[in-house]
Amino acid sequence: MKMDIIIKNGNIIDGSGSKPYKSDIAIRNDKIFDINHYNETDIEAEFIIDANNLYVCPGFIDVHSHADVALLNDGQHASGIMQGITTEIIAPDGLTLAPLSKNNYELYKWYLSGILGTPKNEYDMSSLKKARLNYDNKTACNVAMFAGHGPIRLETLGMKDIPLVGKQLDNAKSLLSECFEEGAVGFSTGLSYYPNSYSDSNEICELMKIAKKYDKPMSIHLRNHNTDRAFHNGGILEAIEIAKRTETKLHIEHYKPDFNQSINDVLDPVDQAKKEGVDITLETYPYPVGSSFPQAFFPGYFHEGGPEKMLEKLKDKEERKTLISKMIETHYGNPSNNVWTHINSEKNKYLEGMLFDEVAEMWNISVEEMVCKVMYEESLGCGFRGAPPRNIKTWRQVEKNVMELLSRPDYMIGSDAIPTGGLPHPRAFGCFPRVLGRLRRRYNFPIEQVVQRITENPAQRFNLHRRGKIIKDNFADIVILDKDHLNDRSTFEDPNVHPEGIYWVIVNGKIAVKNEKTTGILSGKAIP
Ligand SMILES: [Zn+2]
């Protein structure tokens, strides 16, 4: 029987965490047909890849990607596929564009433009099923989706500052059921974003009763907004309490110690809860600072009514004053020491790459005033990242922590990539190779262990059917790399650079990356 592809002589890391072994892999249609040693005479193939001295891994799975719109605008998605990411799980933090009726779609598309960018074309996002079809066979990687808290709340109550109860809560629950029926791999929420943060813990418990029925996890960005509405004042304890009360699976987004914390500080409550039987997994990314959009600095009242109302508040001098005083009072993060990554207009494009403090000084206004001015002038189409620490010792500590976290069997990688704007956070281009190349070598972790965390682990957690492992009859999602020369090349100063050392990427049996170049083949599926 003729094969489509044979990968010869590779060192196979199967994704289970077992030691690498040498063999050939035969691929036929979209599946791994067999793993065996072949002689040239045994078997014929359309295409033979010589993987001598190279490592052959299952395709990487990114459990936290904000590429919802980036993938629609450019299905090639070079920033991800060149890292070896064969499956993107989009719609984390509850921030996504489905399921939304026409008006709410327009509203949320605008509201999220600072983080997701803006779709170039029209899309039907009225249900999760329709949204998923927008990606099916149109992207280089597979796409799985969460059911996002944001759209579910918008559809039931709009941008209103009250927790869901009664009839509206019932509507939200049936909408969530529908999302699970239509293929959502979990429920996601981000409790420093809106309208998600208008919720209280009870609302989330009620929604998680539906997730329990479908045996789906909650992927949560821990609460720091409206903490008075939460069990134990939000944060990790709220998330654990919700999982405990509803007996559901919990997945904690971007969870690692801050500069002033130790690993034990953050993991003690997690390990305590696990001892009590709570099912918890976690994710992190290997950089010292994050990235977001400026809406996250503002309290609930600012977001009420959506973008149009928000711009009115920003425009009016008195309102802006009130807004700034509330922003300082609630202190949802410090706007100083950040850098603009994404600016919509040509007029202000030059701000990309500039420090907030610098822009404020240039305009002779406070940082808070500067943020308001840019948001107003950009009509919310702007985003930022943190400025990385100048002390290399701090970097090293963060990186060491990340690798230590990844040695735990309950961790995986979520890049939290925001592939939008001219100077994005480097995680959008370098996250996976950074962990698997540079940091693995520096801290001397076994490659098969790191690979397991980014393949089998996420596939199991989010129930991605026949993915995450190199075994017979699984889908042929495969990365072939040189483990000693694998490096991220994306930096804070020059982020839009692809990694080196990832030679081949195969998605559903088709070659997406050949000799470190994209082929233009878009064989990604909407999964699971
Ligand atoms: Zn995120």
Sequence-ordered SSE layout with sheet pairings:
Layout lengths: L2 E10 L8 E8 L2 E6 L8 E6 L4 E4 L1 E6 L2 H6 L4 H4 L3 E6 L11 H10 L1 H4 L11 H6 L8 E4 L1 E2 H9 L8 H16 L5 E4 L10 H13 L4 E4 L13 H12 L3 E3 L10 H13 L4 E5 L6 E2 L7 H4 L3 H9 L1 H14 L7 E6 L12 H8 L3 H11 L4 E5 L5 H15 L4 E3 L13 H17 L3 H7 L2 H6 L16 E4 L20 E6 L2 E5 L2 E2 L10
Parallel strand pairs: 1-4, 1-5, 6-7, 7-8, 9-10, 10-11, 11-12, 12-13, 13-17
Antiparallel strand pairs: 1-2, 2-3, 5-18, 14-16, 15-16, 18-19, 19-20, 20-21
Helix pairs in contact: 6-7, 7-8, 8-9, 12-13, 14-15
Bound molecules: zinc ion (ZN).
CATH topology name of the domain at 59-289 and 392-429: TIM Barrel
CATH architecture of the domain at 59-289 and 392-429: Alpha-Beta Barrel
Q: Radius of gyration, rounded?
A: 23 Å
N-end to C-end Cα span: 29 Å
Instruction: Identify the CATH class of the domain at 59-289 and 392-429.
Output: Alpha Beta
Give the proportion of residues in helices. 25-40%
Overall 3D geometry?
globular
Mean pLDDT over the residues: 97
**Number of continuous helical runs:** 19
Heteromolecules bound: zinc ion
What does this structure look like?
This protein is of the alpha/beta class and 528 residues long. Among the domains are: 59-289 and 392-429, Alpha-Beta Barrel (TIM Barrel), CATH 3.20.20; 294-386, no CATH class. The protein is 35% helix and 19% strand. It has helices at 68-73, 78-81, 102-111, 113-116, 128-133, 149-157, 166-181, 201-213, 235-246, 263-275, 300-303, 307-315, 317-330, 356-363, 367-377, 392-406, 427-443, 447-453, 456-461; strands spanning 3-12, 21-28, 31-36, 45-50, 55-58, 60-65, 85-90, 142-145, 147-148, 187-190, 218-221, 250-252, 280-284, 291-292, 338-343, 382-386, 411-413, 478-481, 502-507, 510-514, 517-518. Strands 1, 2, 3, 4, 5, 18, 19, 20 and 21 form a 9-stranded mixed β-sheet that branches. It has a 6-stranded parallel β-sheet with strand order 9-10-11-12-13-17. α9 (235-246) links the parallel β11 (218-221) and β12 (250-252). The longest helix is centred in the C-terminal third of the chain and has 17 residues, at 427-443. The radius of gyration is 23 Å and the shape is globular. It starts with a strand and ends in a 10-residue tail after the last strand. It binds zinc ion (ZN). Zinc ion binds at residues 64, 66, 92-93, 416.
